[in-house]
Amino acid sequence: MASNGAREPLLPQSPDPAPPKTNGQVSRRRYLRCRSAPLANVDPPEKTDIGSIHRFDSILGKLHPSFRTVALYLIGYLGIGAVIFYLVRHQITGKKTEGVLDAIYFTIVTMTTVGYGDLVPNSDLTKLLACAFVFTGMALVGLILSKAADYLVEKQEALIIKALHGNHEVGPTKILQEAEVNRKWYKFFVVFVLLVALIIMGTIFLVAVEKLDVIDAFYCVCCTITTLGYGDKSFSSEGGRVFAVFWILTGTICLAQLFLCIAEMNTEKRRKEITEMVLKRRITIADLEAADIDHDGTVGVAEFIIYKLKEMGKISQEDIALIMQQFEELDVDQSGTLSPSDLTLAQAPWPS
Amino acid sequence: MASNGAREPLLPQSPDPAPPKTNGQVSRRRYLRCRSAPLANVDPPEKTDIGSIHRFDSILGKLHPSFRTVALYLIGYLGIGAVIFYLVRHQITGKKTEGVLDAIYFTIVTMTTVGYGDLVPNSDLTKLLACAFVFTGMALVGLILSKAADYLVEKQEALIIKALHGNHEVGPTKILQEAEVNRKWYKFFVVFVLLVALIIMGTIFLVAVEKLDVIDAFYCVCCTITTLGYGDKSFSSEGGRVFAVFWILTGTICLAQLFLCIAEMNTEKRRKEITEMVLKRRITIADLEAADIDHDGTVGVAEFIIYKLKEMGKISQEDIALIMQQFEELDVDQSGTLSPSDLTLAQAPWPS
């Protein structure tokens, strides 16, 4: 990814330790950009796994790998919950329907912290079990939330890259900015539409199957997706609980995701304001002095970028210092620039 | 902050447009660092307000300004909730104690989504009111969570700056790294200790005042702080509800904060792994080519830093492109470096 065959090498391939002199006459007004620094692969083992997904034909197999991991956790959690609460079903009181279904329903109502109270533990053992399940359930819901966000973002990433590739000459900055804004709005839009659909679906279902009137049905929907769960209205029929098992989980996660989206959009807006503020600020001579990292008396474009990024709060002194340390280790001839010969001298030969 | 009187100016103060030549003989092995780029002030209007806090003598006045804003929202929310639910108290059924207290208690139980169900709305009006209050309550709890984190972090910031200042010669990188790790652990520790204290306090209170046995009390505590709220055990006495009003809010927020802490520490750990991976990777000639932002055939320390930061995913092409644009606007003489004369030519005179 980092090497592009079509481009001519800009650095001399000779092992001359002295850095090549700048002639100062290179055309400066062409569009400058830091080319093709590859983004670090966050989850390499998972990514290399993508190819193997197609071996499965199940729905689970077709899911995104990080989603699949979460789905497996969820199935494991619900499976263990169902078995345990089925075994102790006589120590749980309330409105009961079918044994296994009630156990799964109770697990879902507990893990999402809806806690209607239509089924309640009534022994010390089941009470402590419920405590254990609610804490682990919260952690699992948190995991689902973070992974769902990753998934949506990654799906959009492809579109952005395509947009960038197709319009390379028209100004990548603008496209990137728009893609970034669009991505956030797209995510918000998807989650919002899904949530409205789930609210309507839940209301209709409660009216049709649980025989509630419309206000009561809507009230029960709101009590559920917010995890409020007073419990005066809940799913008490067998059909209702089958629906509830799927609907409660998607509904609560969808609403939480919407709140996360709004929070992200707020953060993004604030960050954009800071960026604009930093970019609009007058540059003084004191700024030039402070930006001169290599103390050579001039501020190049890269030094300027680092100074501004630091001012924006996007990078910290720690980030810079660690990389500087590596630079100094690599810069064997202490010329202040890296040359191919520096690399040869500083880095041990490839292990054979 | 950006100008330091004790330091001699590194840039020539003459309006000579040609960049000063590097002599290549400057001592390179001294510790390089990008000096004193000021962090952008995130909330300037709030910050300038700090001085005015001391005019108030109340507890509220002594709080951190962003905390004060949230406290005002919270008081407003609880006040409105108390008034409204007091007015419609005859349309709420369940275990009742004193009118105003019940209204506040109901508001708290609703906003935190605990939703015991010991008090439930039983008219269309109160049901829709509860829906409105749970949504706004969730948003408010989210705000409290984010501000509480800010507060804890800012409190630590002072310690870090002090550590840096006191040990300037011993290696700022190490101190910054340790401070970063310590800050996360400190926050986790504070929240954890507070949560354990709240759990013990709640359990003892429920045993002493609500006359529950120890397991039931602990179970009710867990049901509450996780916002599960089955409602089979809740605060039914007048004294219990006074305690509950304060305890439920702090307990639920404390647990959510602990989960956030753990998530942050995980993110931090992953980020550190990526940083290490990027720093350990062999540098190839192709990397040098890609890192050469200004196309002058050499890779200086600043270019190297930007390349590595990009590889770590800490900065994006968008960030770089925007600042580059500003650089090109400022670099009037197109020398590829900024000089004081560039600044004079590019920036309009100060408005008088």
Automatic annotation (TrEMBL), chains A, B:
A matching Pfam family: Ion_trans_2
GO molecular function: calcium ion binding; outward rectifier potassium channel activity; potassium ion leak channel activity
Keywords: Ion channel, Ion transport, Membrane, Transmembrane, Transmembrane helix, Transport
Region (Disordered): 1-27
Entry keyword annotation includes Transmembrane helix: yes
Membrane-spanning ranges: 70-88, 100-119, 125-145, 188-209, 242-263
UniProt xrefs under InterPro entries: 2pore_dom_K_chnl, EF_Hand_1_Ca_BS, EF_hand_dom, K_chnl_dom
Domain Potassium channel: 73-153, 194-266
Protein's cellular compartments: Membrane
Record GO cellular component, one term: plasma membrane
Principal subcellular localization: membrane
Domain EF-hand: 325-343
Mode of membrane association: Multi-pass membrane protein
Family, per entry: Belongs to the two pore domain potassium channel (TC 1.A.1.7) family.
Protein name: Pulvinus outward-rectifying channel for potassium SPOCK1
Organism: Samanea saman
